[in-house]
Each structure stands twice: as C-alpha cells, then as structure tokens.
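Q: Give me the 3D complex with calcium ion.
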Amino acid sequence: MMTPSERSNGAEAHGTIVVVEDDHNIAELVDLYLRNAGFRVLQASDAQRGLELVAQEKPNLVLLDIGLPGPMDGLEACRELRKTSDVPVVMITARDDEVDRVLGLELGADDYLTKPFSPRELVARVRAILRRAEPSRRPSDEPVTVGSVTVDAQRREVTTPAGEVALTAREFDLLAHFAENPGIVFTRQQLLDAVWGIGWFGDERTVDVHVRQLRRKLGDALPLATVWGVGYRCN
Ligand code: CA
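A: Here is the predicted complex, encoded as structure tokens.
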C-alpha cells in the first residue's frame, strides 16, 4: 500500500509542494485539492521529515503547520529551512497569537493561512505565490539606488556603505518596490497589492512589520518615511 507521501501526479505537475502537517484529515484534504489543481504533493507529518523532503525534492513551495509533534515545531523548522533554501513557505497557523509570532519572528515565511481555511483559498494563495516567485516577473535588471542603499534585483543583493545586507524574500520585494518608485507615497493596502499580490488576505500590519525590519537592518542608509495617516514613502 502506498502512503500518502508517495502519491503524486508526476511529470504533468505544475510544481511540487511539500506539505508538513500532522493532522491527518487536513493533510489529506490539502493533498486532494492541490493534486486536483495540478500540483505534485509530498507529505510529511513532522518537521524533521519535512526538512528532509525539501532537501531531497527541491519543491516549489512548502506548506508548514506550526503545531507539529516532536522536538521541532513549524516556526523552528521555517528558521532552519531558511538557512539553506529560499523556497516559498506558507505557514499554517491555528490561532491569532500564532499569526503574531509568524509576523514578528522574522522567519522568512512568505504567507500564512489561519485554520480553518478553505481549500480554494489555499490553492489561490499557492498559485499567487508561485507566480510571484517566477524570476521573469522582475521588472528591472539594473541596480537601483535609494538613499545610500543599492538594490540589485537581478542578483537580489542589497548593499549599503557598510556592506551587503541580508533580507528575507519579502523584505527584499518591499524594498525593491520602494526603490523602483522613489518619492511616491503608498498606502499599506497599495503595498500589499504590489508586493504581496492582489488577493492576498493578510492584514495591513504585515506591512508595518516588514517596514520595521527594513529600518532595523538598513538604518540611516534608507530614507523610508512614515507619512502619517497615509502610509510610507521612500526617496
Ligand atoms: Ca498540527
């Protein structure tokens, strides 16, 4: 008998997704919908096995439940994953306080879903993230300078006079959006639409969290202003 983790639709798949979820019913439902949407799905029920699958299979995206059995929860697994991979990660949270931790911990997750979520919403999010992850969507090849920060979209490198700065994928995309549109005031919703994608269901404090991280990492080199009552502007 094949285990769920061995089932796939192979060569015709639109991409491979590793699902790390210990709740069997949720895992099966997610598996079903993603496979019906044309993805190859590999399942793991704990973080260790999930990390092994990611290393072996080089998936296009990882769905990672926070509450996992064993010594490593989903938050730690995401942090561990980020040491070696920039694969898009969607965290699955069970409670609002877990959302706060995902947003606050700078784990490098790309998105999150709160249980209960509809399988359709899941598939829509996965597709949106994979579209964004395509390298061809980068609008500019030339490095752009804003303040004393240089953003090289092609190499995905950020440098200041003090040297190169490591950003998460989403922090980079937000910075690149500011750098490509100097002097323009964006509302938080406009930034969500532009950087996280239209149809992203998260709330606006996500933007504030990422702006805070950019300011912390880039300091005075980045002229990123809060426009009170409106949003943010960089120039
Ligand atoms: Ca769980």
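A quick observation: Residues 4-133 form a domain with the Rossmann fold fold (CATH 3.40.50.2300).
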